[in-house]
Amino acid sequence: MTMTHETTGVLGTRMLRKEDPALLTGEARFTADLAIPGALHLAVIRSPYARARIVSVDTSAARAHAGVRAAYSGADLADLWAGPMPCAWPVTADMKNPAHLPLAVSQANYVGDGVACVIAETAEAARDAAELVDVVYEPLEAVIDLEDAVSDRVVIHDEIGTNKSYTWDLKVEEQEGDVDAAFAAATYTVKERYIQQRLIPAAMEPRAIVAVPQPFGGDMTLYSATQIPHILKVMVALTLGIPEHQMRVIAPSVGGGFGSKLNVYAEELLCVALARKHNLPVRWTETRSEGCQATIHGRGQIQDIELAADANGRLTAVRVRLIGDMGAYLQLVTPGVPLLGAFLYAGVYELPKAYDFSCTSVFTNMTPTDAYRGAGRPEATYAIERAMDSLAATIGIDPLELRRRNFIPTDKYPYEAFTGLVYDSGNHDGAATLAAELVGYDAIRAQQKTQNVDGAKRRLGIGVSTYFEMCGLAPSRVLASLNYGAGGWEAATVRVLPTNKIQVVTGASPHGQGHETAWSMIVADKLGVAPEDVDVLHSDTAISPLGLDTYGSRSLAVGGVAIAMACDKVIDKAREIAAHQLEANPDDLEFAGGAFTVAGSPDRSMPLAAIAFEAFTAHNLPDGLEPNLEAHTTYDPPNFSWPFGTHMCVVEVDVETGEIEVLKYVAVDDCGNQVNPLIVDGQVHGGIIQGLAQALFEEAVFDSDGNLRTSTLADYLVPAASDVPSIVTGHTVTPSPTNQLGVKGVGEAGTIASTPAVINAVVDALSGLGVRNMPMPASPNTVWSVINAAQGGSQ
Amino acid sequence: MEISITINGKAVSADVEPRTLLVQFIRETAGLTGTNIGCDTSSCGACSIHLDGEAVKSCTILAAQADGGSVTTIEGLASADGTLHPMQQAFMENHGLQCGYCTPGMVMAATSLLNDIPNPSEEDVRIGLEGNLCRCTGYHNIVQAVLACANK
Amino acid sequence: MIPAAFDYVRASSAEEAINLIGQHGDEAKFLAGGHSLVPLMKLRLAQPSVLIDIGRVSDLSYIKDAGDHITIGALTRHRDVETSSIVNEHVPLLAHATSHVGDPQVRRRGTIGGSLAHADPASDLPATTLALGATYVAQGPNGSREIPASAFYSGYLTSVLAADEMLTEIRVPKMNGAGWSFQKFNRRAQDWAIVGVAAWRNGNEASVALVNMASVPVLATSVGAAIASGASIEDAAAQAAAEADPQADLNASVEYRQHLARVLTRRALEAASA
Question: What was the ipTM of the complex prediction?
């Protein structure tokens, strides 16, 4: 791998993670591990009905149970809330957002919707007492099917009068009518429907919360297993009417998120509100079945996509119609998820200004959905990459060849896309060529000819997917144009302590990504210190007061770049001090290897350590220069970053049983410059398996009454090591011109690319049997049924 | 009921309710929170510890069932001087963990696996860890870590 | 995650356990390894008021060669069955099937008697012992009785065991070199089988039993009869679902289960005949 960034040796190396020793020895503290004396335990009573009027709630028996401090219905607590559960993304001015309180008052709208709660001295007493709360429900008809929801046959929320939350359009045409004209003139068209099944994020650490009132003055500390301590602090303050400066949020070690901890949850608000009310700490730890029911779900879309192409197979127009499943209520960014995909339905391909996207999002009586790893982008990539295979089949050419014909050429970067967004850099042919080489593309195509003969019991398939990630969320002005309720900047402070140890404060909030390691490497590279001399502070709003947290593959491309920029400011200030001490012109000083040297006079040099100490003592600083050596930066990126790549998957399908075996998985990802390739590969591996799990294993299944039938990890099939393949990773390196590190981000790439790669491989394997499409997850039963249907159809 | 379990070489005795799970005894009574809870159906393996020398799931065993037994948790794996156990070291060197929540259980399962099969194939490792779920790593580096540890 | 409260008593012998369950009545349950019962209790799908822990009845943990059959104490752990040289030599089908139960951690706690008494048709061992023609020994207040595996299962999660009886021993005929195969079909290795097939064959004698193909484990007698009458494997396997009465669930439709039973039976017989 070549690095274009100049390094002192550490950047771009596979440095082992600083986070690991604590996590490997059990020393790390997750929220549920915190010992908080005197804390009361919260238990939530949840609706067993998908839609029901709450007739009455009797908490008397629960309150009489030994150890119980209090029990409340939703109505009992209705006065505690200064505002409803927050949704920060009103995507349209007329978006419908139904009433949503931490505990439902008059109507429960999904199985798992909280209707009452108990606080008790022990978790056991709280759980036992919860069983004694007597709730009388009047069950109402539930809406589970998305198209049924659109019809408004049954309206879930009376007060808004419709199940449709919003319709959001993105139509891009040079001249009105271009899209229709392109379809009319097209040599080839395809029209496909894809279903993005609902997924359960299933971070291994269940959510956990402790709210701790501070002794004097009304301050409140909230510990939560969250990805977003900063956003949570603001939202809790607003929702509960607590002055923001009296709220402190700490995310201790957090055991994975994948978007599921990018939210403001009822239990967080309940713990804080009840801790205030009782002036005692209140804690709650989710059980896995609660997590499956009451932590957000991901995906949940019906996608209708149409492609138009000319005689050479080059795309001339794309039309997309989505129905988005919001679930019962809007959570923090629920309505925005389809929008994050709206810009990616042409993938990495050249498309003229002939694009017609419309999304209607509806309420259903199921768990609310929200951002789940990739959030909108995996859905879009799946649709275009599946449709490209369909187009290749229609034309009768190799799917990789079709992609090559449509790739945005490398020499057109930076490339202004049909949407007006500017893609920063790319080399799609390079990534595809490397992937084809690593997987042995031609050999597999040749082997298919001999293996996939009539009567073959095991059929071989290869699937290709290419992608853009669109990450580094985000330029604040772009977010404004999408009505997002916040900006997309990130804050950083770099502080050189008197002894030349470095404190870094970041507004990013890691939960597995290795920021402590990566940020240390950036600082080590910039300041010429050892990575072990850098301490990264994060995830506590008292220590890191400004930040917008970790999601959307934004941390490196925004937060990491902010660190580098703060380092530059530190160097600038240090240069002034060094120039003063060395009696040299600042412009004549060169900074390298952690020391300033006067150009041409190698003996006139001053190390950063000496400068830091001078800055601390302030005995001899330049006139007007403030003591101490630290700098703060808030970085608002001018553009998204656009990681890209090509993944290829080889499968064998047992046509008798429908069982799929993944024989080989090759991923070529280009995330620009890599700070730590060890971490990059880890992100890619994990993302791929999560996307593969959508393709083959996972689905949140609801019955027609709205009961979640996959509410444990025995039923919801998160795959284990025994069920998934090894992964071959390759990389190309096309630095981003947008930021000084040339980085792009990699957190969601694997998830975005792998789902279509796997399904394309399965469909490819079965194409000789007449199979053109494959619902997800491609369970053995599903595959068997699809083969049967295709065979029946051809007879 | 009075329960006594030796945890990481130290006897821990307490009067607990019969319904106390071994994992609760370890976390709450002994105060050793390295052992995590990830599910309620014995599916995820986050709570794996060694009971009398073998990996088991401590969320599916009553403390009473382990009364008189000897438990090793993740906190008991490294040497007294802080030197990581070879399996912990291998997980670190191979980036076999990200968020770290499944890691204690995964490491305890992996050490038990190598006790049973000292020189496993990749397939042995993957099958041997079938009872432990990880959401971050995609398992690739976990498998590499276990193989690397076996080859040391 | 937190079971409902219960009383806990520990038995040191089968006799004591049976006395205790007699005293405590219907609300009491035996606790062996606990790996079927405890998860149900944590989800509060089971709320026994008394648990009688038989896990320390150490004289029920053994594997012995008894001439034409082997005997396995009901409290023998899966791990010990899976690795036993006696079982591997004389009843390799059972050793192999046991290696597919749950996951390694589960197999170190779960017991053969606990698994059989739980009578889950989706478990591997009820069908395997059925195919092998095993006999279970149950002890009650009035002494012991032998129950053929084929007469043990009476419905979903229920058996002919009386409330005050417990399994003490499993007797499994030696396979005497018969070919065998255990086909477990599932989506994740740790899961219960969607369909499983336990089969052995010795010349024209064959026995096939099915996992998760009815509310009870199913002996596919038609398959055995077809092999005995000289039918081809293909034709015999076509009968695999004849005695089955499968249910649809999240992983499989009724038709798919029937199809899988036939395919897996054919594969099992081919392997057992090789």
Answer: 0.98
